[in-house]
Protein 1
Amino acid sequence: MIYLIFAYFCASMIGITLMALTRKNPVHSVLWLLLLFLHIAVLYLFLNAEFLAVVQVIVYAGAILVMFLFTVFLLGAKELPKGKRYTDLPEGKALIGLSLTGVFIGAFSSITTAWKGKYTIEYIEKIGNTKALGVMLFNEYPLAVFLLGIILLIPMIAVAVIAWRAK
Amino acid sequence: MIELIIIFIKTAVVFGVVLAHVAYTTYAERKIIGRAQARMGPMEVGPYGLLQPIADFIKIFFKEDIVPMNAEKVLFQIAPLIVLVFTMINLTVIPFDRNFILADLNIGLLFILASASVAVYGIILAGWSSNSRYSFLGGLRSASQVLSYEIALGLSLAGVVLSAGSLNLREIVIAQHNTVFGVYAIPQIIGFIVFVISAFAETNRAPFDLPEAETELVAGYLTEYSAFRYALFFLAEYVAMYIMAFLCALCFLGGWTIPKFIIDILPFLEKVPGILWFAIKVYAFIFLYIWVRATLPRYRFDQLLNIGWKVLIPAGIVNLLIVAFIKRLGL
Amino acid sequence: MEPGTYIPYKYLPVFIALVFSTIFGLGGLLINKLVAPRKFNPVKFIAYESGNLPSGEPKERFFIGFFLLAILFVVFDVEVIFLYPWAVAFDLLSIEGFWVMIIFIGLILVGYIYEILIGALTWHRK
């Protein structure tokens, strides 16, 4: 049963990505990406990472992809001209093929098992996924949260600059 | 296998009950707004107009389905389905009673926020695929409104989650029952007000219904839709109203329980089944929706965004900080 | 449990509800297509602009304000998402866990007040 489900996900995610790459209308590409993100979120559920699944949908599919869509609207790109995309040239095809091969080799050769930490599987199952994530993130890595606050100030400055210049 | 059939039957029952409620909410709205304007609502069809929703429902199938000339056919047809599907799957995580819940997810509350985030795409696509300037602008305005108020919604619910310590909706109600006041609306009154205002704006209802107002941009992103597609959008809007009412009843008003201090005064109230209290709270919130629509004037678009960004976000953060400090200092 | 064999059975009703609502929507559309009249009149298919002819391509002059709103929405959405694990794990947090989030909210508030003073959150009527 689980093999059927994983077979569906493998086939569909590769298929959806290919559809997203080859559409002429950029809005259609963005919508295929939305479908891809929903599939990724369901795949996270199978890994027992339910908080990550909803974060994928809320932040990635629901906020960042809306920003992509607004960018596409802003640029007013209606259709990409045919024949001038780099994927139609032989150099483009070779580049994509080689980089994909490199990615796959890198992924399969770097699979190691992690060392055991102090949060055991029984502990995580007892208190739930979100609570364990919160406990670990805020107790062990407070500096990361602080740095993230600083990073989130950067788009605010960018928005302020664009708004101030547009006035 | 037998569990699968039970799940099917439960889902069908929940959907059927909620859709029947939605149909009769349209009737209740016309009656109540009519009375608020010193006239009777529908009185013709059936006794006191009670068969009006059925007549409307049958009529809508016989209307012609017009797809405009230059519209993108596929996206035009998918947009109402996206909004409807992602609004209706919220119904599976709502606990109607102590033991009646379709899918007892540990992240039930965030699941509702996630599907609200995806439903925005239906609105943007409806506006864009109609291939008309005013529909597109209406769709973008409506989507910006929903996005702005989603942050305020998330902040007000974060206060509830902090008090309850869990994202599971059933555990939130149980934790709520164990507090002094029994409802979260009293200690977190700011959060409750922020939630109610955001609920009005998220469902594109009055006084925030600028995209649907007939004098502005005709009907916004809905202009080019006719017959059953239009009905799908309105079905989705009323189901979203019910979802917000359910969330308010569960997170702020105590769900299927009544506060302990009321049970101490009148002990016979504990025998009443929980789903009746839940229904009363939900109906009260829906009545509030209709009452506000009949009473308040509409906001302009920039006033709308100002409220969402400049008033509700600071209020939500203040509410969260108050709850956090009170809980940390152990009061 | 062994790795790679977990099936989230709790989410099955969600999937069934998805299928039900899709069937409901498509079924209604199908009945509508079968039952409704179809009279062809070219005026019906033109985009509606209160009696005027359609005035141009819909993709002209995209207001920059929508784009800025989308960027600010991403920032605040990420912040709200970080609030949720903190809120759920509140009872088990240590001192630095609690205060780092207060500092995080403080940083976001600094950015927010800056945006209000610059005027990026005010929607200008163009």
Protein 2
Amino acid sequence: MSAPQEFLPPESPSRTGVAAATTRVATATPESAKPMIAVRGLTKQIGAQEILLGVDLDVDLGETLAIIGRSGGGKSVLLKHLIGLMQPNSGEVWIEGQNIIGMRERALAAIRLKVGILFQGSALFDSMTVEENIAFPLREAGERNAKAIRTKVTEMLEVMELQGQEEKMPVALSGGMKKRVGLARAIVRRPSCILYDEPTSGLDPVVSDSINRLIRRLQKRYGVTSIVVTHDMKSAFDVADHVAYLHDGRIYFHGTPAELQSSSDPLLQDFMHGRSEGRGD
Amino acid sequence: MFTRFFTVLGAPFVRFMIYLGEVVLLAVDTFKSIFSHKLRWKLFLTQIVEIGLLSQLVVVITGAFTGAVFSAQTYFQFNKLGMGSAVGAVVSVAICRELGPVLTALMVAGRVGAAMSAEIGTMKVTEQIDALRALAVYPTDYLVVPRALAMMVSMPLLVAECIAVGIGAGYLVAISLLEVNGTYYMANMVRWTRNRDIIMGLTKAFCFGLLIVFISCHKGLTAREGAVGVGRATTEAVVNASVAVLIFNFFLTMFLNIVYPAGYQ
């Protein structure tokens, strides 16, 4: 692999990246604006199954984008490509002007310091306590001052409303608490972008709402760019500045939540209202 | 017809070569990391405890009963020829050169190799390894290097312990139960056991340790399909490591015998 490329990503085919949808809404983006994350022509095949068939997507600095779509539609696969956890068959992923596709694992470390991720299953280290999990990225970054680590962990626990849970092991936590600890671990090093993989899946509505509030609070407090993969429409409308609908391996719709709600596209209507045999089929 | 024949025959061979290649690449990656990146001392010491300290009982029992039974069997044969006092030399050389390293390696493959594979495999299927990568931690540095270094340190010590206990148990059985003359037993043993026999055993221990750690970690890192996948990876790690130890032992013996020839010279 050659040295990381530092160029502007090629222009997206369209801001919406939609070929067929009648509901395409071109959002206004200044030509000079450089997206923090740009995806170009991303394709991915796993075994015989084609998951992504040419995804184009731009995410601007400070923006919160919700990627919605049917279960098994490739949302999580797309998210993992954004941090280099999966390699595509073709296409490009640009993070702050660097194309990360083809970069060596060690070279990706610099990118991963800028981008935190909350995994669907939280992926907490099950041999570590809550405190050790949150402190892990700090220790790995070379922080040896126990007091400084303690201060940052305490701050994270306060932000996540997890005071008093420091000594618990992940196995003793509820689903919502695991998500919070996973989120605390993802943001303790203050990344400029956070990826959320189904942050509210498997949680009751009250806990889901608390996670949504937490995402909004992080946006306000740290001004991070966020990408939320979800099939929970309430969550998408609660947290997102823009919504992208992934359908048949491509971005079918990309617009604001208001534009999505006012769309008359039967496919989007069916998804929003949870109809299994709607007009879009 | 011929194409199908070669496809059926060739596919497992190709898979085997790919597997060997992956294990070798993991080993290369690990050694590169050892020489170019910082060592996580806490993880290294934890693995020393896991591999070295917690294997004590298994290794002592293996060494003791192997030495005891080998001493008895050798005596039964040698005594007919009036060579009862030569038992010490035979037991000592055999345990140093073959039985100590091979049996210890098989026990460590079963105990430690399985644990390594299961632990890393579980981390793989629960996305903990992806979490490591997402937190800018290179999995080889964090998971494989401490285990490999701990194995390099622990295995020679475990084999040395197995050899010592085996020789001691053989001595006790020969002297106490079989009434061999202790002075002649010791004299013959010291006369026929050379430093090179011990060095050969410890060299084998080091090599077997590397085989076990790379095969086990590779199986863990490539585990798939949930609990079933982890179970399969663990079983394959133990079987592959044990078979590799036995096969590699033959070639290593042939090579090391050139460097450290057997017998009184």
